Amino acid sequence: MSRIIRHLDQWRLGRTDLENHVIDELLGGRLDRRSFLRHGSRVGLSLAVMAAALKTTGLDPIGRAMAQTGKPGGTARIALIAPSGRIDPVTVADQYGLLVLQQVGDFLVLDGPDLVLKPMLATEWSPNDDGTVWTFKLRDDAKFHDGRTMTADDVVASIDRLADPANGSNALSAFKGVLSKGGAKKVDDHTVEFHLDAPNGNFPYYVSSDNYNAIILPADYSGDFETKMNATGPFILEKYTPKVGASFVRNPDYWGGAPLLDRVELSFYADQQPQVLALLGGQVDIVQQVTVQGSQSLFDNPAVEIIRLASNAHREIHMKCQSGPFADKRVRQAMALTLDRPRLVQGLFRGMAEVGNDSPFAPIFPSTDKTVEQRAKDIEKAKQLMGEAGTSGFDVTFTTMQIQELPALASLIKNAAAEIGINVTLKIEDSGAYYGDAVPGKSDWLDSEFGMTDYGHRGVPNVFLAAPLKSDGTWNAANFQNADYDKLASDYVAALDLDAQKEVAGKIQRLLLDETPIIYPYFYDYLTAASPNMKNVQPTAMGQIFLQTASVG
Amino acid sequence: METAAPAPAISKEHSTLGLLLRSPTFLTGAAIVLFWAFCAAFAPSFVPYDPLADDLLNTLAPPSAEHWFGTDQIGRDVFSRVLVGARDILTVAPLATLLGTALGTAVGLLMGYFGGWTDAIIGRLIEVMLSLPLIIVALMVLVALGPSTPTVVVVVGLVFTPLVARTVRAAVLSERHLDYVPAAAVRGEGWLHVMFVEILPNIWPPIIVETTVRLGYAIFTIASLSFLGFGVQPPSPDWGLAIAENYGVLVGGFWWTVVPATVATASLVVGVNLAAEGLQRALAE
Q1: Mean of the pLDDT values across residues A316-338?
Q2: From start to end of A251-388, where are the E strands?
Q3: Chain B residues with at least one Cβ partner in A under 8 Å
Q4: Contact yes or no for A428 and B233 at CB 8 A
Q5: What mean pLDDT is predicted for residues B35-55?
Q6: Cβ-based neighbour number of residue A310 at 10 Å
Q7: Which of A276, A339, A428 is most worth mutating to test chain B (most B CB atoms within 10 A of its CB)?
Q8: Is domain A233-307+526-552 classified as CATH 3.40.50.410?
């Protein structure tokens, strides 16, 4: 042990105070293995240092990351819903298009299946003292499919392209207020600095696979992605047919070692059912995402392996805070108290979800303050709160979308609300009608008094904290206006240190539990279905499927 | 002559009713429709469970002594839901049919009575409407206005209007040259009086048949709209909606969530069509 500690001490000599603080937290027992890996990787600790630190505490070191053990050859056939719109890294906005991007492209940083940041095209990264400038060192052996070597110019151009409002990139929702056009600067051929708009302790997530648009393209990319898909990824485009599918072949010059698979084939479907049938019938090997509701036949089926990833994907049930029957926070609290969350998790997800506590801090975020009391069903208290608010009940319309378990949950909410005299009329519409133009006055989502929206998984809660909850948030369907909250949310984003993040998170969690602008009933797991003869398939809760080390048979 | 005229009419009506009561086709159809009408009216008072009550610890349970048709995805009793589910379709479909028949009859009378330009213009408009698939027109309107029960009634009623109008027009054309029509005009009756008081009572048999046929189509159209998510809103136990909500779990072997509502819809459509067929034959005798 002493040798290991000495070894670790040597590693620690060259590290910043912030990095050493994270190691101290682990050694002091204040961080568990997973939180240490997530937090350490965020501030730029290398895997080698983290492994040494873990060994010191007697915890499992990092598992052999993506070891190639299978036999070479074969094809992985993946079923997914047809991506909407063109496949262009700048504009792709759904989890289907991102799967296409990710077969051919790489990110600076990988937010892997275990939610730990790992080097990809960047080998290391670190912030300055206040988190306003992050420096990334790049690999020097990554090549584009056309043979050119990737350099800092390509990285600067790729990230700038996404941050430039003129390009209308989908990544603007993440970069807004974080990184502006011109914020990415080349230091030398293999070093890039990001000068941020405001301090940000989680910036590496913004250029990781979490920000699925952020694959690195050649600096001279001109927008014709569908024809060549020239990037640095493990597979090279063979053929892409919109609405039908795509095929890829192994990239023999991949910087991470050539993949084992010869080919990857993506087949696009319109719905989940045919994908499930195709898997059961042996026409595909992997279904990108399955839901508990639509895939009952796959569970307990020995011919199918369900890969289950904890995620923070969730549903937000908003209640208008400024006007209408929910303007009094006691009514909102009462509504939240009618839901039996453990039963929802059991009944709707066969237990494959975590109970929510009316804030976006899902249990999987390391910064979540788990000492905050969990809200549980309490009809008596709910009725009492309604009485104190001077109402015995009212009529209200609940608006939501016709996707996945949302209509079922809407029916359950109607029944739950009836227990305290709230008479809910359901309005279930297709997602196009629900989102409308996504601006107030032209969107059932933003205009409805009481409604429900789905939110996908993110590596950090920053987007969940800003757009739907901040007073000027663009997705603030609850019309929540709270200056204290706005300040706390900004403090959270700026906090570099996990302790500081946790402290602010606790305050946010308590404030939201009291105000209850939004009910967060659960955070459901991301489920991918695969045939058991596929080995080493690595999905992420974002919808990516990493196949560099996958094999057949 | 004048006093004797009503007698054969009454006896014909009597004979029509007699024919109907002796028609196995009509009786079978009527029995099925009456069974569902009875369920629609009274099922909530005798079904074993509240059709809206969820039970998350007992979801997708197969048929058993406790739940005859099993439970659905949120643990609601399928048997209770199917019986009560007749209520929505048997309210919406007849209302839509009545609206379509009333409007169609009015338009058909106008076209047949006035003929000429009125007939030509409305006739071309009807052809344009008929050239568009019914369900697509209904979907477009529902997308624009947003789904709700009154909207479904109005939309389905409107898309049936041209079909009824065409039938009524043909019937009016065969009547308007009969002596009693010019006679009424000579008496100084207005055109509204002639159309609705003189002609209409003489063309009711084809209108009745058209109405029953339309009812069958209305049930099917409304069930389709519900299935596509543009009909009755959850948590109604409506059949089309039940199929839409549960067909996703069919692959998992949970057939009982879908089959009862499917059989119920099919039986009601068959029932209405059998009754229509029986009625048509009786009136043709």
Answers
A1: 97
A2: 263-269, 286-287, 305-319, 353-355
A3: 52-54, 56-57, 59-60, 73-75, 143, 146-147, 229, 233-235, 245, 247-254
A4: yes
A5: 95
A6: 19
A7: A428
A8: no
- Return d(Cα B154, Cα A270) in angstroms, integer: 31
Which residues, numbered 413 to 442 in chain A, qualify as contacts with chain B under a Cβ-Cβ cut-off of 8 Å?
414-415, 425-430, 433
- Domain A106-225 = CATH 3.90.76.10: yes
Q: Do A415 and B52 touch (CB under 8 A)?
A: yes
The predicted pLDDT at position A170 comes to 86
Q: Which residue of A has its CA nearest to B148?
A: A427
d(CA A398, CA A449): 7
Q: What is the CATH number of the domain that holds B137?
A: 1.10.3720.10
Compare CB distances from A412 to B74, B229, B253 and report the shortest one's residue: B74
Test A293 with B249 for CB contact under 8 angstroms: yes
pLDDT tens profile A181-238: 999 999 999 999 999 999 998 899 999 999 999 999 999 999 989 999 999 999 999 9
* Chain A / chain B CB contacts < 8 angstroms: 77
Highest mean pLDDT among A292-301, A478-487, B13-22, B143-152 belongs to A478-487
Mean pLDDT, residues B186-190: 88
Q: What CA–CA distance (Å, rounded) separates A73 from A553? A: 10
Inter-axis angle of helices B134-145 and B204-227, nearest 10: 60
A539 preceded by cis ω (within 30°)?
Answer: no
B255/B245 Cα distance (integer angstroms): 13
Fold designation for A314-524? Dipeptide-binding Protein; domain 3 (3.10.105)
As for how many domains chain B has, the answer is 1
Instruction: Tell me the Ramachandran region of residue B26: left when phi exceeds 0, alpha when psi lies from -120 to 50, beta otherwise.
Output: alpha
Whether the CB of A352 is below 8 Å from some CB of chain B: the reply is: no
Give the pLDDT score at A58.
56
Are B233 and A425 a contacting pair at CB < 8 A?
yes
Token pair of B281 as six digits:
């034959």
Average pLDDT, chain B: 89
Residues of A in contact with B56 (CB under 8 A): 340, 343-344, 346-348, 412
Where in chain A are the domains? 2-56, 106-225, 233-307+526-552, 314-524
Residue B47 lies in a domain: no
- Residues in chain B closer than 8 A to A278 (CB atoms): none
Q: Which residue has the tokens 């009527």?
A: B30
A276: nearest CB among B54, B251, B253: B251
User: pLDDT grade, residue A296 (50/70/90)?
Assistant: confident
Which pTM value belongs to this model? 0.83
B174 falls within a domain = yes
For residue A401, the distance in angstroms to the closest alpha carbon of chain B comes to 10
| Local structure of B79: helix, strand or coil | helix
Read off the pLDDT of residues A460-473 as tens digits, 9 standing for 90 and up.
898 899 889 999 98
